[in-house]
Specification:
With 438 residues, the chain is an alpha+beta fold. Helices cover 48% and strands 6% of the residues. It contains 20 helices and 5 strands. It has a 5-stranded mixed beta sheet with strand order 4-3-2-1-5, with helices on both faces. The longest helix is centred in the C-terminal third of the chain and has 27 residues. The radius of gyration is 36 Å and the shape is flat. The N and C termini lie far apart (91 Å).
Length: 438
């Protein structure tokens, strides 16, 4: 690297940096430049500080992270990457926004304007971060498993966008009326505030950021790779009309046309399309909350593709509290066996006294009928009666939990078992009336 010369003394240098810290928000680029000077030259030699981090911490309470951020902003947003001047295209953003933009692809930053708020840029960053959670291998598997779709990238983006934004489809359908949508109306629908960024996720591709600006061409950026494609408004409108067939007057309602196109019912919770307001009524409308310029992808994290063969072999996990048919051997056919009994040719429960030894360990209710328990007296009989009561109460709790969770099959099985327990307790115990037990 070429040797950088700096003619001023440390005192002059520090006064200059003090001044920059008090200036406008865009002075951070110059701050970053001056910190780089301290890092790359011997200007700190007479100060007693060994590093720029030590100097910044002692003099300005800037920690290493802040120093690194100032320098990174200068690297990315200054002219030629090493100057004290902010590139013209990034003037007006401010420190907070550019700090977020540090982590965005250059292709995205180049298409944004200062009118985007910090919160909107944060939303774009969240979309980029969300896509980073999906590995390249998972995206490749998505591509191999997803139905093959024809058309250009722009046409695929438009199709996914109109699927995710049904109200936009309705509004465009209303504007078309059997002909091309007026270009000004088309731009107003797509970008009401003059600018809009849509995030749509294409299976096998990833999240695409469609950045619209009614004062210039638009850009579709792959958030995974940073690759982008410039898109004109004419290309967008052509893609919409080719997909929807708006120019052919079908006579169908917009909702029916949407369902026909995407093969699914029109969503009941879809936002309503914006209605036109007569000019004489416009002044009477109440103030409307400003709409965000960023629309996130309307999808959760993509499901990880699975190997169908592996999926078939994977055992079904038992949900805690859910009944298993093996817990009720009296209802199982004699030809069905569960691993654990030594002789699988014998009818189940012949050796196990009505229970499979393997199930005995995990069975939610332990009920064992033996001559001793049926005819037992004294302490042993009382102990079994107490066990029956406990089992009945436990079953009641399990039935309540199953009903709460809408596990009706589980509730019905447990209800049958509960009836058997109560019946046995009633016949083998003391009369409830005589004892006063309830």
């Amino acid at each position: 690297m070429d040797v950088i010369t700096y003619q001023k003394s440390y005192r002059e240098y520090k006064a200059e940096l003090d001044s920059e810290l008090q200036k406008t928000a865009e002075g951070f680029v110059r701050i970053g430049y001056l910190l780089k000077v301290a890092r790359d030259t011997n200007v700190l030699a007479e100060s007693g500080y060994k590093t720029v981090a030590e100097f910044a911490q002692a003099e300005y309470s800037l920690d290493k992270t802040q120093v690194s951020r100032f320098i990174s902003i200068n690297d990315k947003f200054s002219e030629d990457g090493y100057s004290d001047r902010l590139r013209t295209s990034y003037q007006g953003f401010g420190y907070a926004k550019l700090t977020l933009m540090l982590q965005l692809p250059d292709a995205v930053n180049e298409a944004l304007t200062p009118s985007y708020s910090k919160a909107e840029i944060q939303s774009i960053k969240e979309e980029v971060d969300e896509e980073k959670k999906v590995s390249d291998i998972e995206v490749c598997l998505e591509a191999s498993q997803a139905p093959e779709e024809g058309g250009t990238l722009i046409e695929r983006i438009v199709k996914q966008l109109l699927h995710d934004e049904p109200s936009m489809f309705i509004e465009l359908h209303r504007e078309a009326l059997g002909c091309s949508v007026n270009m000004q109306h088309f731009q107003r629908i797509m970008a009401p505030a003059g600018e809009k960024t849509y995030s749509v996720r294409l299976a096998g591709v990833g999240r695409i950021l469609l950045i619209l600006n009614d004062g210039s061409d638009n850009r579709a950026v792959n958030s995974r790779t940073g690759e982008f494609e410039e898109v004109t408004w004419q290309q967008l409108r052509d893609a919409v009309e080719k997909l929807t067939g708006f120019k052919e007057c079908t006579g169908k309602a917009a909702e029916d046309r949407w369902s026909e196109l995407f093969g699914e019912p029109y969503p009941l919770n879809a936002p309503e399309a914006k209605s036109e307001v007569a000019p004489e009524q416009q002044t009477k409308q109440p103030a409307v909350r400003k709409e965000s310029k960023v629309q996130k992808a309307r999808t959760g994290s993509p499901k990880k593709p699975v190997n169908p063969k592996t999926e078939e072999e994977k055992p079904v996990e038992q949900i805690p509290g859910q009944a298993d048919i093996s817990d009720f051997p009296e209802y199982m056919p004699e030809t069905v066996h569960k691993d654990g009994c030594e002789n699988t040719e014998k009818p189940i429960n012949t050796q196990c006294g009505g229970h499979n030894p393997v199930d005995e360990e995990n069975a939610p209710v332990e009920v064992v009928n033996t001559p001793e328990t049926e005819n037992g007296t004294g302490a042993e009989s009382k102990e079994h009666k107490t066990a029956d009561k406990t089992a009945i109460l436990n079953l009641l709790d399990e039935i309540k939990a199953a009903v709460t969770a809408d596990h009706w099959g589980t509730a019905m099985v447990k209800e049958h078992s509960l009836r058997e327990l109560i019946d046995r307790a009633a016949h083998g115990g003391t009369d409830e009336v005589e004892t006063g037990e309830v």
